[in-house]
Amino acid sequence: MRQHLRFAIVSDPHIALPQTIWRSPSRFHLVEVSIPALEQVFEHLSSLALDCILMPGDLTQHGEKDNHNWLAQRLSDLPIPVYVVPGNHDIIQREDTDKTVGLNQFLQCYQNFGYDQQPYYLQSLKPGIWLIGLNSIAFDAEGQQRYNGYLEAEQLDWLDQTLPQLQGQTVLVMIHHNVLEHLPGQATSSMGQRYLLQNAQALRSRLQSVNALLLTGHLHVQDIATQAGLWEITTGSLVSYPHPYRIVELTVENGRSQLSVQTYRIEAVPELPNLQAYSRQWMSDRALPFMTKLLTSAPLHLTPEEAEKIAPYLKDFWAAIAAGDAQFDFAHLPQPVQQHFERFGAVDDQGQPQLIDNFTTLKLGSSAAFHASS
């Protein structure tokens, strides 16, 4: 029996109505384009024969009730089913305030987009194809959001009860925080850890029993990673360069799953007809503090004076990472710096280009892509 699922991934839209926009000169996010960019995406997707739209978190700028309510209403107007999970920007603390939603209010707001009474769910998309929506937003004893993503014991117990029922079927697992590393040394980097699920191994070990694909956001980069037979597609933010979204086609036949991935970009919005160039420059203009921190942190540990000299040569580094399929040549930099940053390029274990972050075909359950195209 052959099954086919065609779906879109729209991640980290950070919806911000004009009256809610934070005015900060150092912010990376171009939240000013959140609504016109999303409207353009929805116009495109509504013209296609899609089975669903998946949104892996950071739905709003910072958990504002007005922004959540606007988005939930907009999603209800679409002719396509939509499923969401929360990101770290969506539920700032467990209880709601006069301006922001808490956990229960989030579930109520998005009750037509996956949720019932609990902050995780199982949804049938097609016979033999399932979606699991997980909540990686956890809270401390005071009800404040934890720094790292985390799956609490109740959710892991639910997975233990649910996954055995799905053996032999295909399972899409949507969660905000990364479960696999998408950057070299991400799990040991103080800057990279905050984008990872803290107890990722607990989830990875459970998913070994099913034919699973991970769909994440949070990192604001285009990247496809694999580990121990698991694949994870992380999708960049709609309000950060290169303003991407994806259309994915999944075909399941004779127990084998094949995945075709295509990436699209928002090229322009009414007030920014040159959005791509403007946004890349916006990111580069704000990159020096970020790159200086990278250079002075492990494993390089440069002095502030050394980092200050080198950082300007790396101002476009994160934009290249965010776009996916990055290729680097840092021969003009000191050798330790050169070797460190060239590791971030899209290369395989033999150092050869592996351009699979934006356009590719994958075989689920395999540790290597059997076809890639750009």
TrEMBL record:
Q: Name one Pfam family in it.
A: Metallophos
Enzyme Commission number(s): 3.1.-.-
Which keywords belong to this entry? Hydrolase, Iron, Metal-binding
EC main class here is hydrolase
InterPro entries of this UniProt entry?
Answer: Calcineurin-like_PHP, CNP_phosphodiesterase-III, Metallo-depent_PP-like
The highest taxon in the source lineage is Bacteria
Which GO MF terms does the UniProt record name?
A: hydrolase activity
Task: List residues of the Calcineurin-like phosphoesterase domain.
Answer: 5-221
Its family? Belongs to the cyclic nucleotide phosphodiesterase class-III family.
What protein does this entry describe?
Metallophosphoesterase family protein
